[in-house]
Amino acid sequence: MPDAMTATSSIFEFDNSYARDLPGFYVTWEGAKVPAPELVLFNRALAEELGLEADALETPKGAEIFAGVRLPNGASPLAQVYAGHQFGGFSPQLGDGRALLLGEVVDRHGKRRDIQLKGSGPTPFSRGGDGKAVIGPVLREYVLGEAMHALGVPTTRALAAVSTGETIYRDGPKPGAVLTRVAASHLRVGTFQYFAARGETDKVRQLADYAITRHDPDLAGAEDRYLHLFRRVIERQAALVARWVLVGFVHGVMNTDNTAISGETIDYGPCAFIDAYDPAAVFSSIDHGGRYAFGRQPAIMQWNLARLAEALLALIEPEDLDKAVELASAELGRFPDLYKTHWLDGMRAKLGLQTETGDDQALFEDLLSVMHQQGADYTLCFRRLSDAATGSPEPLRDLFVDPTAIDPWLARWNRRRAQEGLPAEQVKTAMDGANPLYIPRNHKVEEALEAAENGDFAPVRALLQVLASPFREQPGQEAYADPAPDSFGPYRTFCGT
User: Fold this and answer.
1) CA 224, CA 24: separation in Å to the nearest integer?
2) Burial 398-437, CB ≥16 within 10 A → b, else e
3) What CA–CA distance (Å, rounded) separates 221 from 202?
4) Fewer CB within a 10 Å sphere, N or C end of the chain?
5) Does pLDDT of 450 surpass 70?
6) pLDDT score recorded for residue 2
7) What is the spatial distance between Cα 170 and Cα 414, in angstroms, rounded to a whole number?
C-alpha cells in the first residue's frame, strides 16, 4: 500500500457502511501522490446538499482532498471488487482500477451518498494500467452528469474536478486530473456477478442484504426479499432507460459493471446525445457492432438484468433452481412493458398530451419515423412543437429537408390535442417544461474540453451554466441550442482510460 495520506480536519461526516459491513468485498487502498493539485471545478450547491463545509473545500487543502493526497478524517479509502460483462464477454474480475471510495455521508435529506475519487492512481485491480485520468474525460463526466441531473435523469454527480500537475499519456501527453463522484451507491450488477461466479452464495446473500438495507429498506426481513429486490432494480432501470431515450442520450458502454443497482446513470465514458434522430446512432469508438446503439438500449438493459437474475437465483429459491428461474423470468418479462409505459408517459408529456388513447404509440412512432427520414434534429423538433401548438409551425417545419413532410403528422397531432380541449398557451408551457432547449451538444462539449486541455476552463464553466437550466430560454445563448455544423463529425468518443 502507498504511504498514508496526510489526515485533515473533519470536513466530511463519514459513516462508512460498505467498509464496515462488507469485509472481503474490497481492498483498503490510498491515492497516489500528485505534485500540484489545483481545483478546476467545485460544485458548491452539491456540497451544501451533502452537508459539507463548502468554504473549507474550496481551498488548496480541498484540492488536495479531491486529488487523493490529503485524507479527510473518518475516510476509509478502498477499491471495490466486481466483475462484469463487457460487450457481451464476461470478465470475472474487474474492480476499481482507478477509483477509490473515500466513504459515505448522509446528506441533508437523510440519503446515504458515496464519495469516490476517479483517477487517483493504480489499485490492485488496475490490470497493468496507471490508474490515472486526464482532464478531458474528467470534465466530460462532470459536464454530462450535471446536465443529466438538470434534465431530471437519475445520475451520479460531480462534486469537484482537480488538475494534478502531472502529464499523463493518452494518445499523446495530457494534463492529469481527478474527479470526485457522488453516487447513491456504487453497487453494480457486476458486483453480484463477481461473487456468484465464484460460487460464494453466502457473499451474494450478504451483498443483497446490504443492497436492501441501503436502497430498499422496506424489504428487509421479508421472506421473498431477494425476488422483490430484483423487481425493484428492474423497475428503476426501466424508468432510467426510458428517460435516456426521451432526452436522446446514448450511454455507449452499457456493460453490467456500468449498471447500478440504485437506478442511477453511472460512468460517462463514450456517451453522447443524438442530434438527428437515428435509432442506430453509435458514438463509441469501440462499439464496432452497434451493440449499445441508441435504439438498442432498452433491450441491452433487459439483457443486463438477466445477468443479475442469474446471480440471484440461489437466493430466490435455494431449494428449487427451476422454481427460481421461473420466478425470475416472470419478473424479467415485465421489463418491456414497464419500459414502454415510462416511454409512452414521457412522450405524452413531450407532446403536450394529458390523456391516454389506444392510438398514442402509433402517433409517437410516426413522428419519429418522419424525423428519421428527414434527418431532423431530435431535441429541437420537440422543443419547436410547442410553437406549433400556438399556431407557429414554421420553426418546426424548417428542421425538415422537405417542410411539407411533417404536415400530415401535425394535422393528426392537432386533432388529438383538440380532443383534450386545453388552451394552447397552457399546452405550450407544459411542453416547454418537458422538452429541453439545451442539451450537452457534442460539438460544444468537445470545444469546451479542447480549451480545457489547453488550460482555458472558461468554456466549460460557461457550458455548465447554460446546462444548469435546460428548459428555460436564455437570451444570448442560442449557439448552445444549435445542432452541430455539417463540418463536425462523424463523432466518436472514447472511454478515457
Assistant:
1) 26
2) ebbeeeeebeeebeebeebbeeeebeeeebbebbbebbbb
3) 16
4) N
5) yes
6) 40
7) 52
Q: How far apart are CA 125 and CA 27, in angstroms?
A: 9
To the query of whether residue 257 is one of the catalytic residues in this protein, the response is yes
Type of residue at 128: G
Burial class of residue 146, CB neighbours in 10 A (0-12, 13-18, 19+): buried
53/275 Cα distance (integer angstroms): 40
C-beta separation of 438 from 146 below 8 A: no
- Please tell me the predicted confidence (pLDDT) of residue 364: 98
Separation CA 376–CA 129 (nearest Å) = 42
CB 355 within 8 A of CB 387: no
In sequence order, which residues have a C-beta less than 8 Å from that of residue 270 and are 6 or more positions away? 252, 253, 283, 284, 285, 286, 287, 492, 493, 494, 495
Q: What length is written for the chain?
A: 497
| Among the listed residues 220, 221, 136, 216, the one whose alpha carbon sits nearest the alpha carbon of residue 179 | 136
Q: Give the global pTM.
A: 0.96
Q: Which residues pair with 179 in a beta bridge?
A: 118, 161
Q: Which residue do the cell numbers 383534450 mark? A: 420
Nearest to 310 by CA among 95, 107, 471, 85: 85
What is the separation of C-alpha 44 from the centre of its chain, rounded to a whole number of angstroms?
20
- Secondary structure letter of residue 260 according to DSSP: B
Grid cell for residue 359:
392510438
Q: Where are the alpha helices (DSSP H) in 107-168?
A: 135-150
CB atoms within 10 A of CB 197: 17
Residue 223 one-letter amino acid: E
Mean pLDDT within 182-210: 98
| Dihedral, 104, 107, 110, 111 alpha carbons, nearest 10 | -50
Q: How many CB atoms lie within 10 A of CB 473?
A: 12
Got the DSSP string for 221-246? T-TTHHHHHHHHHHHHHHHHHHHHHH
pLDDT at 122 over 50: yes
Q: How far apart are CA 147 and CA 145, in angstroms?
A: 5
Bridge partners for 42 per DSSP: 160
Q: Which of 257, 267, 377, 432 is catalytic?
A: 257
